[in-house]
Design brief:
alpha/beta, Rossmann fold, 8 strands
């Protein structure tokens, strides 16, 4: 699905030298060694592509070859997703509440990506993230500002903003946020009753125009991974972290006055939830930047949450001028 790209599996250490020199060293972010799976291709400035739930690096199969004409494109599976390593649950008895789910935190995932890019020879790069990958991208920009030259955030509002501005409409659309964070292993057992059907309900919804927008080969990959109970558990741990330690990290960053300092593009599906709530995405994200002028963006027409799949040409057209600066 990625012609001309090379596949890699890189072991990332528990703590990279980049993490030692970042804001991440100031708070709990337990991160055991793991393996990050991905692909690399093209030539030019480095560009990291990060997927969201319940997908993998395969999300980028339509855009990566096009972007590789101008960039060295790296597309990875986040820890817990795709063929990357599965983090160990941090809910053992005696684990401090502040450190629970730390292995699945956006901070840990961001540090993984810095370590991978460093291993590939890049200490500064652009990042495009969708969904959970966009939340990792946001954390990358806060914890490793010297590493991020520019960033694109696809179809998200800040995690802390979502939890602080819930209403019935949003809670209904984001029901999985609250289902997934229930204690192990209730959600895991319920999903196990029909994992494929549950996966299809997600990939075909959220304002998107049905399951058919996903390439059959990509869909088969998502089904392959989701069929593994360990993968499902790891992905639910991501959401458990999002409702706990990730919020603590966000609060810490807010107290420290950390903001996005690189040019930032915000894109969202016109038919999805992000652009149809009470707060405009650009207004919210501009409060997260050191200079509001750093943040630009637009809606992708005729698309919902999975607009990279629904409207790849429009997505590419929106990304290209931003990445070229």
């Amino acid at each position: 699905m990625f012609p001309g790209f090379e596949t890699f599996d890189l072991q990332v250490p528990a703590q990279s030298s980049a993490a030692q020199n970042s804001a991440a060293r100031n708070s709990a972010a337990r991160r055991s060694p793991t393996t990050i799976h991905g692909v690399i291709g093209g030539s030019g400035p480095p560009l990291l592509l990060l997927h969201g739930f319940p997908q993998s690096h395969v999300l980028w199969h339509r855009l990566a070859p096009l972007l590789a004409e101008d960039y060295t494109v790296v597309a990875t599976d986040l820890r817990g997703y795709g063929d990357s390593g599965r983090p160990v649950s941090a809910d053992e008895p005696g684990t401090p509440r502040s450190e629970r789910h730390a292995e699945s935190s956006f901070r840990a995932m961001a540090a993984d990506q810095v370590a991978v890019l460093a291993e590939l020879g890049f200490d500064r790069f652009a990042v495009v993230g969708h969904d959970r990958g966009a939340r990792v991208t946001h954390r990358l920009a806060l914890d490793h500002p010297d590493a991020v030259s520019r960033l694109a955030l696809l179809d998200i509002m800040p995690t802390a903003h979502v939890y602080a501005h819930l209403d019935r409409k949003l809670a209904t659309a984001y029901y999985h946020w609250f289902f997934f964070i229930q204690p192990f292993d209730l959600p895991e057992r319920l999903i196990a009753g029909d994992p494929r059907g549950f996966l299809h309900s997600i990939l075909g919804g959220w304002g998107s125009s049905g399951l058919q927008v996903h390439d059959p080969a990509a869909l088969a990959e998502y089904e392959r991974i989701w069929a593994d109970p360990a993968a499902r558990h790891a992905q639910l741990e991501d959401y458990r972290a999002g409702a706990s330690i990730d919020l603590a990290h966000d609060a810490e960053s807010e107290r420290a006055g950390r903001r996005i300092t690189a040019p930032c593009l915000v894109l969202w599906g016109a038919n999805g939830m992000v652009g149809n709530g009470p707060d405009h995405p650009l207004d919210v994200w501009r409060t997260r930047a050191s200079d509001p002028a750093l943040v630009t963006g637009e809606a992708i027409a005729d698309a919902g949450h999975f607009f990279v799949d629904e409207q790849p040409d429009a997505t590419f057209a929106a990304l290209t001028p931003f990445l070229k600066g």
